[in-house]
Amino acid sequence: MASTQSIDQQSTSIPFYRDERVLKIIAQVVSTVIIVGLLVLAVLNFLQAAEARNMTLTFGFLKEAAGFPISNPPIEYEPSMSFGRAFFVGLVNTLLVSVTGIITATVLGTLVALARLSSNWLLSRIALVYIEFNRNIPLLVLLFILYFVVFGQLPQIKDSITWPGPIYINKRGIYLTWPRLTETGIPFVILLSIGIVAAIIAFIVLRRRRELSGQNTYYVQISVAIVIVSGVVGWILSGGSPFQLSTPVLEGFNFQGGLRLTPEFAGMFIGLTMYTAAFIAEVVRAGIQAVDRGQIEAARAVGLSTIQVLSLVVMPQALRIIIPPMISQYLNLTKNSSLALAIGFQEVFSVGKIAINQAGRAVPVFALVMITYLTLSLLTSFVLNLYNSRIQFVTR
Amino acid sequence: MRKLLALLTVLMVTSLLLAACGAPATEAPVPEEPAPAEPAEPAEPAPEEPTEAPGETEGPAPAAQGGGILEAIKARGKLICGGRTDLAGFGMLDDAGNNIGFDIDVCRAIAAAVLGDPNAVEVVPLTAADRGPALQTAEVDILSRNATWTSSREAQWGNFTTVMFYDGQGFMIREDSGITSTDEFDGATVCVTSGTTTEQNLADFFRQKGMTYEAVIFEETAAVYGAYEEGRCDITTSDKSQLAAVRSGFAEPDAHIILDITISKEPLTPAVPHGDDAWFDTVKIVLFALVNAEELGVTQANVEEMKNSDNVKILRLVGQEGDWGYTDLGLDPDALARAIAAVGNYGEIYDRYMGPDGIAFTLPRGPNELWSNGGLIYAPSIQ
Asked: What is the CATH number of domain A83-173+263-395?
């Protein structure tokens, strides 16, 4: 507001209230005081109120026995274990649904984006409908539809839908045939992991050498060969069968064996994937369309194949645009996983809500939940920002 | 990385600025002490040092705390009652959309007693998981939402007044499941509401029996029973009154049975926030009056003519003779009579929702009979 008034510089003694530099400093100080003051007021008010209501900010209760069950804990959990353990179980569930959700949403989102950009009219329209449908329905509604309408209408266990595999689908979940590591399979896993690490190192070293020397070092072929050789050697060492297929079998109330996705997890996972993929599709489409058409035409003119055009020309430039909004989508997905509360998937917030009630410690639990999400989000954006700055550097 | 650095820089600059403007303002209580502090007034774009006098020290006081709930209610003109809208019999919506039920009538009785108007109630619907914090923070004047009284809740949540409904936890299963006793529960899937004693009792029960089970846990009551009715669970468990209430709302109530076994004590009790003895007393006395009214045969219909009764106990109850404590609590002599006129006596409230012709369902009174009829409902005298 003061910037226009400070134009006149006729005398050396400008009164301070017309000196732009002084005014700027005052503005800074005043705004800082307002912000800090409000913060202090909020904190003090909270401390006073908490004191008056006998709500303490201690975390000792985390060691006490929780006493409440958690549905289908991914790691060992009994109600006799501590609140801390219960909280950790919730955290594992959050990570499980977020990480798997991020992976599938990225893949699905990219495919939908490519479909959306396709010159095939039908494919492009289907992708458009998918995006608009999922983007314009609140996630909570989508979750309720998936959980109560879709999964709720599945048949009872006895009349399970059977797909080849075998895969059984019923009200109690999706039962997949799943490979289980046998006892003799450990050397295979060890050798294969060593092989994969070696292959990654070889890939990086040989590619750099090619970039420096310009000679083809066959880095793709060599690293693939390393993985295959280590896998085959491990397979032989482990006596031929490192994995055994575990098939779900109906016993008593439920299926035993195989891999079971509970309706709660499946609903959450599918809901998050569908919803976030729609946003990711738009992000990817925007990134690809932002690459100058001339670049693609030029690449084609040089004689690059379609895959080469995509991988060498389009994607490196598109990624620079895609990654920053993509980070937001990943953070959104992680945070949206707290909606699992509504459909009975017990992630960190849902366990926290129960702990608030059972332990009567609202303030520390909310603090813990907030710190958890904050840490997860900051970690995600830190890692992806590292990647982001790398691709920015490489392409410029 | 750069982002982190930027964040750190912002934080450092902020704290430096805080230190810088804190330094000259030493006369003013710098917001370090949690005493009467409040932020230095930034209103005027005054000179560099924001050395305003600490002026008003009261700040935005956190409502009525540590007493004065009754005054706050009178000033506000209505009672804030933590209740529910989703459980037949206890807190539900009628055809006209009014919140009615056993628990809601408790609030109406109290509003009638202290404000003279049973409709001066604002019912705040709470989930099971939210009710504890709501009472702890005194967001509600009374929590009347079929909450079980336990020692830890008494210590953490607030003051539990007097048991209004004796209940116990039971199990509901589908009749065609063929299960007749809890010994056949091994490996079953159980739907349960989160943040309840039910949830804990369930865990205790299976642990004691050495059986395994799969819990499916929701925060919303409707989701629990929706999932059970759809077949996600073999069993659902809750207070027996709640199971009866829910079953009455199922598409096929007869397809479900409530097992006879009771695995816990569930004394459902209205509770008030900690720290206001007078309010605690007031609520208790109104509840006692409802029970005494049933003992003495005072009903919603005859409470007015009972003011001319020749029974001195009745005269005390309706405020015609003696002081039942109203002077010390700052209430009107006929406060209890107004409560009875508003919702009737204990038995009338029960029968309205759960009696033979109850609006919601029919549940024999059992332990909720008056002590004189062999039940557990007993209240100190109004005198």
From this structure: 1.10.3720.10
